[in-house]
Amino acid sequence: MPRAESGDVTTIPHRIARGSASAHRVKRAFDITACLALATVTLPIVIAIAAAIRLDSPGPVLYKARRVGRHGRHFRMLKFRTMVDGAELLLQDCAHLNVATGMVKIPDDPRVTRTGRWLRRFSLDELPQVYNVLAGHMSLVGPRPHDVDELPQSVFDQDRRLAMRPGLTGLWQVSARSNPSLDHRIHYDTKYVNGWSLAMDARILARTVPVIMRGTGGRVQIQNADRATGTGGGGLNFEANGGELTASPSQSAT
Known about the structure:
The protein is of the alpha+beta class and 254 residues long.
């Protein structure tokens, strides 16, 4: 399948996402309207959070993460910084604490700051992503974007999740976010893309509110999860089954 690459942008032809063109236009119009309102209403909260982060620990207020977006294009996803500055360099020291398969989920991560723990509890660290939505990188609802190094390039051509903009919230977040399994994440994100409708978006948004209010958004549930041996999907094999990716431990993984 042909692919054109330029800098941080990888353009991959994907099948058209489910739903009519008019439904997708309504979805985009709602994204813009809702995020403009959200950005206005939450501005005092954003200013207060920024001040708290600067007072709590040295470093930038925002963390810019490289993520894979629609059609495989790379973009910078904005988040409030919840970890100490330079946390990526300390990840190797914490690798033995990772309970996730194929991604990083560390309960009581020692790199997280005091303010960061509170932000994560109520998912407030995600607030800056309303600007990613306004810029067209993301949608309010959609599959969660992967880190650019989280999935191998070889599976992109068959990953139907890339037919839609990644979401600030999604089916995985409201159904199984606490489950530290990449397979669960891929399953729910693919289920969302295959069955997408405006009504589904409305239901997910309605379910997102109580999750945020309960403060359970960033909690990790450990259920005999295999501990990862590294980052970026290390020790895993990825297969595409009818457009749905599955992650399984490689023969060398222990």
